[in-house]
Amino acid sequence: MLGAARRCGVLRSLLCYIAAMTDLAGKHIVLGLSGGIACYKAAELCRGLVKQGATVQVVMTEAAEHFITPVTMQALSNRPVYGSQWDAREPNNMPHINLSREADAIVIAPCSADFMAKLLHGRADDLLSLMCLARPVESVPLLLAPAMNREMWAHPATQRNVAQLRADGATVFAVGSGDQACGEIGDGRMLEAAELLEDLVAFFQPKLLAGRRVLVTAGPTYEAIDPVRGITNRSSGKMGFAVARAAREAGAEVTLVAGPVHLATPRGVTRVDVASAEQMLQAVLPQVAQADVFVATAAVADWRPTAPAEHKIKKDGASAPPAIAFSETTDILATVAASEAAQSGRLYCVGFAAESQDLLHNAQAKRVRKGVPLLVGNIGPATFGRDDNALLLVDAHGTQALPQAGKLTLARQLIAEIAARTKA
Ligand code: CTP
User: Fold this and answer.
1) 17-204 falls under which CATH superfamily?
2) What's the pTM?
């Protein structure tokens, strides 16, 4: 039998997990497939969209049906697939109108070179291109996931088409790089389904920090005792990575300075890996002049061994354990908060406080001590390594609780708070 506290914890994690997995709840996506070997990835993308809470209507070109069957896509989307503009299932016989009016977005994945050329010219000789042309451009965004051989991708005609499609209002996702089905290696692969999903979720987030530059520190630091041993802490980096992802979703240009963690870099975020507090400081300082917002989520070591041994310290069985002298590390947040950029009001600094007790009092005192306008308190031992958390926002005017939720949900709320406090 699970204890009550444990049951509560499991339920809490489950709810956070479900919340995090339904970022596209209520969205209706028309998923268009044009011809290309990357059609196999569209099956996984369709599944991912449904898992994220979206309803999906698949539309395929004749060429796409050579690569994957409508049966597969119907089974995954739980809806009959459309392929022809003469589809008699629609009472008015106008699937191109009906399907495009229902959509929150049309996503073409894979989008072949030929299909891009077709879109560019406004041609409409099959259902998918006809539907794209007939879509209400103001309310139904068109998102394209290119997929092709590297020479086709690099060709000036394709690059011209990409630029023109963007100018016409389409969102053209990046391409992946690596081994291609043809055996060549280079740019032009369609992004993986998980990458496209992350980009799509980001697309629908409000662009509260568009054009702003956000600098984030995350994770623990590692302070060497000798070449094989060191001192670190239990921070997983998950909260900081979520903050970086949420900032990027909000349209910011994000640099993430990360201590040693095993986490994937959020899409579109520039990551700088460091180990020690000193390395983190040296990675942060050059970024300060360009940044608009600094969010210090890292659990930076307060002390480091003053003189790490050059070689492994040996235990000879006779002598006492080694005495290790410690020096205080530089406080990165306080240093940045004291910089000209922050003091002039151009850079907005946000600190985190990982406490084990008396959160309110400790967070208030820490905000003043660090000299930052906003400090985010949390109970460290209750959240380290977990996917959920609860935050307490402390500023000069008072406090605001962000109740227990998934870290990405909390990160989005925090980014909205930062955006509101830094509105030009
Ligand atoms: N911080 C920092 N550099 C340090 C120590 C802390 O940038 N050398 C930042 C953290 O990233 C966080 C904030 O300061 O945003 C508070 O960190 P925390 O460890 O909670 O506080 P400390 O200043 O270390 O105080 P204490 O350990 O006494 O609670």
Assistant:
1) Flavin prenyltransferase-like (3.40.50.1950)
2) 0.92
Residues 6+ apart with CB under 8 A from 285: 335, 336
pLDDT tens track for 345-366: 999 999 999 888 999 999 999 9
Question: Residue whose CA is closest, atom 19 of ligand 1?
Answer: 299
pLDDT per residue over 205-241, tens digit each? 999 999 999 999 999 999 999 999 999 999 999 999 9
Residue the block writes with tokens 């930052």? 372
Among 300, 304, 372, the mutation site with the greatest number of ligand 1 atoms within 8 A of its Cβ is 300
Same CATH topology for 17-204 and 213-307+325-421? yes
**Which residues are known to be catalytic?**
182
* Closest atom, ligand 1, to C-alpha of 375: 15
Q: Which atom of ligand 1 is nearest to the CA of 354?
A: 20
Asked if residue 352 has its Cβ within 6 Å of ligand 1, the reply is yes
Q: Which CATH fold would you assign to the domain 213-307+325-421?
A: Rossmann fold (3.40.50)
Q: In Å, how far are 34, 101, 120, 123, 141 from 133, measured between CA atoms? A: 15, 12, 10, 8, 12
